[in-house]
């Protein structure tokens, strides 16, 4: 009895080893990120001329749709086309004030159009990435489903073999004694 207690005590002492020391954290050693850049835009010549003429900037939507053989979901999203910018009308009665207002409003329109174009391109990139992520996720789910089905088949066959072995061992034990 004493030997058995000593053996249990020695095995418990092996289990109760002190925990290894924790590694030093790396978060304090990482520098803080720089503040986000401000919303200053460099206006290309094409966007400012398009804004002044009242034409909307071009938005590329070629890669936003799934292939035709992909089953569509019940919800669909429609990206509206941007509205053309309105230029102020000029009147002959107040030509000097209108010219000043026109130049100020055309700069604002150009800035607004450039901002709109940048935001549209960012949304386009995000939609494309979302589509790629969704396709990758669906492929991963299909692979996982195949692995789960294969595992289920193996487990079922293993279960059948174990049941037969249980019966065989029960019969052998009954015969032996």
**What proportion of the residues is helical, as a percent range?**
55-70%
Major sheet characteristics: none
Order of helices and strands: HHH
| β-strand amount | under 5%
Number of helices: 3
- State the shape: elongated
- Strand element count: 0
Which blocks of ≥5 consecutive residues have pLDDT under 50? 46-52, 72-79, 90-94
Evaluate the radius of gyration: 36 Å
Distance between the termini: 32 Å
The whole-number mean of residue pLDDT values reads 74
Assign the structural class, choosing from mainly alpha, mainly beta, alpha/beta, alpha+beta, or little secondary structure.
mainly alpha
Descriptors:
177 residues, mainly alpha, 3 helices, 59% helix
Summarize the structure.
The chain is 59% helix and 0% strand.
Which secondary structure elements does this structure contain, and how are they paired or packed?
Elements: H1 2-15, H2 45-53, H3 95-176
Helix pairs in contact: 2-3
């Amino acid at each position: 009895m004493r030997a058995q207690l000593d053996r249990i005590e020695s095995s418990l002492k092996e289990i109760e080893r002190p925990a290894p020391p924790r590694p030093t954290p790396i978060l304090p050693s990482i520098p803080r990120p720089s503040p986000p850049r401000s919303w200053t835009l460099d206006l290309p010549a094409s966007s400012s001329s398009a804004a002044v003429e009242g034409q909307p900037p071009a938005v590329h939507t070629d890669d936003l749709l799934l292939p035709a053989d992909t089953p569509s979901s019940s919800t669909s999203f429609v990206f509206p086309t941007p509205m053309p910018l309105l230029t102020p009308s000029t009147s002959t009665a107040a030509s000097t004030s209108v010219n000043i207002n026109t130049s100020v409003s055309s700069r604002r329109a150009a800035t607004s159009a450039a901002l709109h174009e940048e935001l549209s391109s960012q949304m386009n990139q995000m939609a494309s990435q979302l589509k790629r992520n969704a396709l990758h996720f669906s492929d991963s789910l299909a692979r996982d489903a195949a692995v789960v089905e294969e595992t289920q088949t193996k487990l079922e066959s293993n279960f059948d073999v174990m049941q037969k072995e249980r019966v065989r061992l029960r019969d052998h034990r009954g015969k032996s004694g």
